[in-house]
Specification:
Length: 218
């Protein structure tokens, strides 16, 4: 693969730095149970996962859903997910490789679609906060949509040139968000989408954080 040049990495959280697939699946299946739908496997959920997330549930539950339905589903999902959160660990190579990146004089930040007021204490609990120049989670209401505008605001707050940034994430939406703002992207296969769908995004795809960072030259 061609090397990317960047001095700043924007990290995704769920499925990228945080190994939480089992928690996501447990929460999805809790929603399925509420609708009388049999449990899905991780591969089945990964096959339909996309943004907006409401469309994923429409496929899995085989019925149209309204915004009111989304409010109920979203609350139920997150309540079930929180029950599993303490069982989630960090991805392979984390935090050591993030320390190495910072100690080499490069910068990094964290942008997540997990709730900001829960993300910040969790990152602190995992002793990662000092690694990041900025940590941004989701503020306010969201319909499970794109990360693009959040990325715009995240980079602007740090006065970063998008051309000097690589976003490392686990879903096609990460690549699309990066493309919209003029940043680069590397996707990892550790999260919610299979390799075949990630490769269709037209950006480098790797199987781990170490492999992703190995593609970047400062």
């Amino acid at each position: 693969m061609t090397k990317l040049r960047a001095r700043h990495v924007v990290w995704d959280w769920n499925g990228t730095l945080l190994d939480d697939n089992h928690a996501v699946l447990a929460a999805v299946n809790s929603v399925c149970a509420q609708y009388g739908r049999a449990a899905v496997t991780l591969d089945e959920w990964r096959a339909v996962f996309s943004r907006p997330i409401l469309a994923c549930y429409e496929k899995v539950l085989a019925q149209p859903l309204t915004e009111a339905d989304w409010d109920v589903i979203d609350r139920h999902y997150h309540s079930a997910y929180r029950l599993e959160l303490d069982t989630c660990g960090l991805a392979a190579g984390v935090p050591d490789l993030l320390h190495e990146w910072r100690d080499a004089g490069r910068t990094q930040s964290l942008l997540s679609m997990w709730f900001h007021d829960e993300l910040v204490p969790l990152v602190g609990k995992l002793s990662l906060m000092d690694l990041f120049a900025r940590v941004d989670g989701l503020r306010g209401y969201n319909m499970g949509g794109s990360k693009a505008q959040h990325l715009v605001e995240h980079l602007k707050a740090q006065e970063l040139d998008p051309a000097e940034v690589v976003l490392i994430g686990d879903v096609v939406d990460d690549a699309e968000a990066a493309a919209q703002v003029g940043a680069q992207c590397v996707l990892v296969t550790t999260g919610m989408m299979p390799r075949s769908r990630l490769e269709a995004a037209g950006v480098p795809v790797t199987d781990s954080i170490p492999e992703a960072l190995a593609l970047i030259d400062a």
